[in-house]
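User: Can you model how adenosine-5'-triphosphate sits in this protein?
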Amino acid sequence: MSSYKILLVTKDQRGRTYKVFAQQLHDYFQNSIELLNDFDGNYESVADLILASSPEVIKGRELPQDKLVVARRTINIKKLKELVALPAGTKCLVVNNMIETARETINILRNLGFDLDMIPYSPRNKRTMREIQEIHDVKVAITPAGLELVPPGIEQVIDIGIRPIDFSTIVEIGVRLNLDVEEANIYVAEIVQLSRGLFNTLTYVNQLNHQLDAILNMVNDGIVATDDKGHIIQVNKAARHILDVHLSDKQMIGKPVQEVFPKLKIFDKSKKNQENTLYSTGGKHLVFNKRQIEIGQGKQGVMTVFQDVTKIQKLEQDLRKELQEKGLSAQYSLKHIIGKSKPLEETIKILKKIAKTDRTVLIVGESGTGKELFAHSIHNLSNRRNGPFLPVNFAGLPESLAESELFGYEDGAFTGAKKGGKPGLFELAHNGTIFLDEIGDASPSLQALLLRVLQEQQVMRVGGHRVIPVNVRVIAATNQNLKEMVEQGWFRKDLYYRLFVLPLRVPPLRERKEDIPLLIDHFIKEYCSTQVHLEQDVMDKLINYNWPGNIRELISVVQYMTSVMEGNQITTNDLPEQFKEISDHIDFSEEQYIQLLEKEGDLIDFYIVLSCLKQAKQNRVGVGRGKIVHYSRKAGFPLTDQQVRRRMEILRELGLIHSGTRGQGSRITTIGSLILDVIKTKLEHISASCQT
Ligand SMILES: Nc1ncnc2c1ncn2[C@@H]1O[C@H](COP(=O)(O)OP(=O)(O)OP(=O)(O)O)[C@@H](O)[C@H]1O
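Assistant: Here's the modeled complex, given as structure tokens:
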């Protein structure tokens, strides 16, 4: 059988298009055709069929219309892989040497179902500034073998190769020449191959989708994802449950989120990024996080993740109530700290920072400055605020009891021990805070035990054998100069450094005089239901006073004044003793001092206090109440913390002792030492006369 002659006309008869077409025709028609190259001679009349690669290549040529077929072009299926990977909506240039061809390529790609934002481009085409700007932003270019035409600056160039002859053109040639397109199965095979690839990809995507669904449905947090237009992409099971929606996927996916959840502010479009925000709706409390997410080029969706914390909040409330009922919670917070002075504000600023950490705090400050208030506030601002808060005052803690109080005991640990044992304060403070007040008064053996708990974060009950791990934050406080005590050997150095992690100094009242009127006013209101007028003279005196007992003393002064005032007026007559001139006492004789002391209490009590202070003076250290309590027990005349406080107040008023200004404790004065000797002689006399 002789073969049919096809004249193939392309733009460049030696070019790539010619070669691709020639190969394609041979593939389909094998030896049934012979190709004539327009370049080699004038074959128009001998050709059985003339195939032009585009209308442009035959422009101006007179060709026999009955033989002419203008090829329709398609895309090389094998080259589509890279295009498939582009996310829908991707902006891309479609580059060709002629703008018409670029448009044609766009049409073909659209018909094949590519949902891309395609801009035709040819370097020959003149553009407006706007178009130039638009092209400038594009990152992807697609070109049918026109790599050299792609403008610079494009990040990804996809060469889809020379566009081959469309299958319908092949069929047309076959019909015109009466040839079988037996090799059409090549084309079909390619399509099958591509569809298989696509099918595999789709199956994989489907699988991934299922896996994602399964994962999203497994988590307990509600998840709702929306696209850039606020349309729902995903709603997981937990979200339906939490939001109490009973709609199918079909009723939600693709719908505007605000239409599906009209009342829910958490999907408010204006706020794209929100973290741990609490939102309450219909008796439910939700905590939600919202994040913007990239989906496709430049498009942004929003992912909202939320939890139902109603139960947790209820549990927390119950726990707090239970702790409050048991007296294990911190009752004070920053709002209870009265004052606006700079030094106080500075202290509060540091307090807030300290509260956020979980480290040990050492609060230092004179007696009555509000250290306990600050400790409560730290706990209430910390992450442990819902946990217990346990205060322990070492000044009032008898040593015999201290160990079992702090660490608990096992059943039968000692006679009188409760059946079943008892947890110690450290155990009770688990997940909370323990406040070790007047830490300077802890005995050496207690100091050793405390050091161990701080180091090991575990306790062992008295009489027990097992260690109990405890997670407790320690806040210690002292009105003594611990550093000096360490130097004098009264306080363990290692414990001091364990405690001295975050020091917080509470300033004495005389360093924040601006707070005095506020505090006076606050406490007057607390004690009097009616309006009270306080003379300016009185206020001046109160401001000028140096408040050795700080706010505790101020409270007593207000209590005193409001008790003795006439009507609702506080005058200078209502000021207590300490505001009268001290010189009143200066001329007392030794005997008068003794009489005054005897009027206030037992001489032996004053003797104990003074001799403890005298000893401390010889050791060159200041001493706090706790040490005196301790000393009194050792001396065999035990005094309570309250008793010591009262005795010290009297001694102070008489000028026999002096209270330090910066937490150094108290010191005996020269007259104090003198009077101590007088008391000693007096007591010896009494004792001698008792014996005879
Ligand atoms: N800034 C303040 N505003 C209101 N009340 C205060 C303030 N500071 C202290 N107080 C009150 O003063 C009293 C004494 O305070 P607190 O017991 O905390 O002192 P402290 O420094 O722990 O004393 P000590 O060292 O003697 O134990 C408490 O009744 C406390 O509520």
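A couple of observations from the model: The two ends are 158 Å apart (CA to CA). Residues 337-339, 365, 367-373, 437, 477, 479, 551-552, 555 surround adenosine-5'-triphosphate (CB under 6 Å).
User: Helpful, thanks.
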